[in-house]
Sequence to fold (300 residues):
Amino acid sequence: MMHIKVPATSANMGPGFDSIGVALELYNHLWFEEIEQGVEIIVKKEHEIKIPTDKNNLIYKTMVDFFAETGNVMPGVRLIQKDDIPMVRGLGSSAACIVAGLLAANHMSGCHYSREQLAQIAAKIEGHPDNSNPALFGGMVVGALDHNEMRHVKLDLPKDLVFAIMVPDFPVSTEDSRKVLPDMYTKADAIFNASRAALLVASIYAGDYENLAMAMQDRIHQPYRSQLIPDMDRIFKAAKNYGALASYLSGAGSTLMAVLTDDKAEVFQQKMAAYLKAIPNEWQLTLLKPDTKGAQLIAE
Ligand code: HSE
Fold:
C-alpha cells in the first residue's frame, strides 16, 4: 500500500491572517490502494466528530474532484485513515485531508502534477493557503492568494524553536470563527497588523527572538475570536510568565499556541500543565517541533 503522512499546521501565527502558517511534527496518516471498484474507507482512530466512511469523506471527495478536474476515470479505492491531528481545533486537520487526497489522487493518476501545482489547487479549495502550504512544504510558509494564483515562500525556522499546542476540549469551527470578524478595519489596525506581519517574517529570518512578543500580536482576528475561547488572554499571560517568547491563537481556534526555545521547554511544560489543570475546561498541552519536510508519500 502507499502511505501518506501530512503534518498538522498552525495558521496565522498572530498577524499573518490567511497568509502565514507553520507545519508541526504531528501527523494524519493515509494508506491507499486501488481496488476493482467502489470505495472502502477504514477509520483507524475515532474522534468526537465521526469521520464519514462513505462518499462524504473529505479525502475521498477531494480525490473524486481531482479526477473529475483532470478528466481521468477514478478507479476503485481502499483508504485507511488514521488522524492524529485533533479535529476542529485550528491545527489544519481539514487541510491535511485535502492534501492527502490530492497526493493520493495525483499518484493514482500517474503523478502528472508537481507539488507546486497541488499547492495551487489546495489553496483554491481551502480559500486561503496558510494551512495547505505548510502541510505540503513543511517549515514556515508565507503565502498570498490572488484570484488565479498563489505565491509563497518557505522559511526554515531556527532549530531551537518549540511550539506548545494547548488544545481545549471544545471545538471552534472555522465557519463560526470567521463569522465573528468585522467587514471593515481601521487604518490603525491595518498598520498594526501589516507592520507586525513584516516584523515576524524578518525576525524569523534574522533569528531575532526578542522581537517575537511584538511580532506575533494581532488585531485582525484574535480580539474578535477571544469571545469563543474562554481564558485566552489569561492563558497567554501565563505562557509569558512561564517562559514563552510569544503566543497566539492557532488558525481559527480553538487551540492556543505558545512559542519558546528548547532551553525553556521543561519548565514551561511543568508549570503550564499545572496552570491549565487549575482552570475550567480540559486543556491538553503538547510540545512539538516544526515539521521541515511537509507531506510525504511513502511506498510500503
Ligand atoms: N486563516 C484561517 C482563519 C485559518 O484564521 O480563519 C483557518 O482555516
Notes: The mean pLDDT is 96. The radius of gyration is 19 Å. The longest strand covers residues 20-35.
